[in-house]
Amino acid sequence: MKGHDHAKTVGELPAPAHRESRLPKLLTRLAWVLFVGSLAALLVYLVSGGPWRVAGLVAVDGLTVVMWVTVTFFSGIVHSYSRRYMAGSRTVDRFFAGVFAFTLVVLVLVAADSAVLFGLAWLAMGLVMADLIGAVRGWPQAQAAAALARRYFLASSAILGLGLATLWWHTGATTVSGMASAIGTGPSPAVLVAAGALLLAAMIQSALVPFQTWLLASMTAPTPASALMHAGFVNAGGILLVRFAPVVSVDARVMTAVLLVGATSALVGKLLKSVEADVKGKLGCSTVGQMGFMIMQAGLGFFAAAIAHLVLHGCYKAYQFLASGSRVAHESPTETDSTGSAGIAGIAVIAATAVAGGVLFATLTGKGTDLGSGVVLTLLVVLTVLHAAREFVGGSGVSAAVRYGTVPLVTLPALAVYAAVYNVVAGLLSGLPVVSQPAELTAIHWLLAGVFVVAYVAIERGLYQHSQRLYVALVNATQPPAGTLLTSTEEYNEY
């Protein structure tokens, strides 16, 4: 500390010097009211069986109610958590106002049918999130991270505006639904430009490679803001692609591009995570990879799977960030492998669980039962199960018998839950155009599947660690701009 005239905000909470603000409590209650209202909207939608519209302005459809429930649930959790986390902060009212404003903007975004309203909500969402990243006004690193994020979000909004303007010029429609329905089946230069702009805007907002810098620099944000960002904000790219699915799916080349950019981020995000040392940094790199998987599913034509993925990933990542403080530990590197060796029995359990997981997923969802792009999706599920099972079996906290028996008992029910969520989301989104039209399986899909298998083996075996050049490149790729890096803990303690 440079002096003793600053309010203590680390450690024991300070005794309030003035009357506690009622705003955090009020906005927290309002957030939960919005969640209850969203559940009611979902129930009414299921009973009525159709969307509600205010002509030319909003359209409440299956995607809207799914995202309303998801966003308000996360918002309620973050509001409740923040009442303790932000207690004693001089900017607590501004922070809560920002979180609640972000919630409202996202609710408008997912319901907007007017192209102008959609674009304005997209812009407002980015500006509010940038403000939350720089919530600590006197911290130079936080302000630098906020300024960086703001530039990215302004660029994303400008590119989205280009895409919307191109679609308006091409179709004459001023609504999102009107643009989607007027596209037709034949691609034109204008549609291809619009599709490229939509994809680029989604990549920036979802922090896909090479636009992950703003996300990795945002660790200066208060942890509740990070939870909201990783559980909600970065999902906007998937929502954008689903809402404009008729545009991006009009040409197989565009869908291939969507698939490849998603695959790149999925693989690079996994590699970046492997060289990160801090907890929030690892979670940030994990988000880059998971958003890549989400975009990949859209590129395969499984738009409902992309929405199911963002819902479940949001639940997981919100919990991981809000619980990140409990994972901080001081450790020293050792020569031994902390995960241990699985052995022959362990390998058999891992392989059997992965295969059973793939079969269960294919059976419950119908994906991968024929030679379509669902084969690639099922393969990704198998590799994910393989990785999770290997991590657990290789652990040394409990006996081998317990580990071997627990893996299938935990993994297979979890996959059943995922499949159930997917089927529910697919049912709710069934009224949207082309959300259930898988891409035709091509040689590129088979090649990509082979790349994922090779990459999985290389990462699990640690082969990439033998290249110093690759390791340094990965470390450099995880480093945000110098101005956003914390170099002294005392600087943080000041605020």
Considering the chains and any ligands shown, give keywords for the structure:
2 domains, globular, mainly alpha, 495 residues, 20 helices, two-stranded antiparallel sheet
Describe the structure.
There is one protein chain. With 495 residues, the protein is mostly helical. The chain has 2 domains: 23-324, no CATH class; 343-441, no CATH class. The chain has 20 helices and 2 strands. The chain has helices spanning 23-48, 62-85, 92-111, 115-133, 140-171, 176-181, 189-205, 213-216, 223-231, 236-243, 245-248, 252-275, 279-299, 303-322, 343-365, 374-393, 400-428, 443-461, 468-477, 489-493; strands at 52-54, 58-60. The chain has a two-stranded antiparallel sheet. Helix 2 runs antiparallel to helix 9 (223-231). The longest helix is centred in the N-terminal third of the chain and has 32 residues, at 140-171.
Mean pLDDT: 82
Structural class: mainly alpha
* Overall morphology: globular
Quickly count the helices.
20
- Terminal Cα separation, in Å? 10 Å
β-sheet strand percentage: under 5%
- Radius of gyration, in angstroms, nearest whole number: 23 Å
Helix share, percent? 55-70%
Q: Can you write the helix and strand succession as a string?
A: HEEHHHHHHHHHHHHHHHHHHH
Give a short account of the largest sheet: 2 strands, antiparallel
Summarize the model shown.
Helices cover 69% and strands 1% of the residues. It has 495 residues and is mostly helical. The chain is globular, with a radius of gyration of 23 Å.
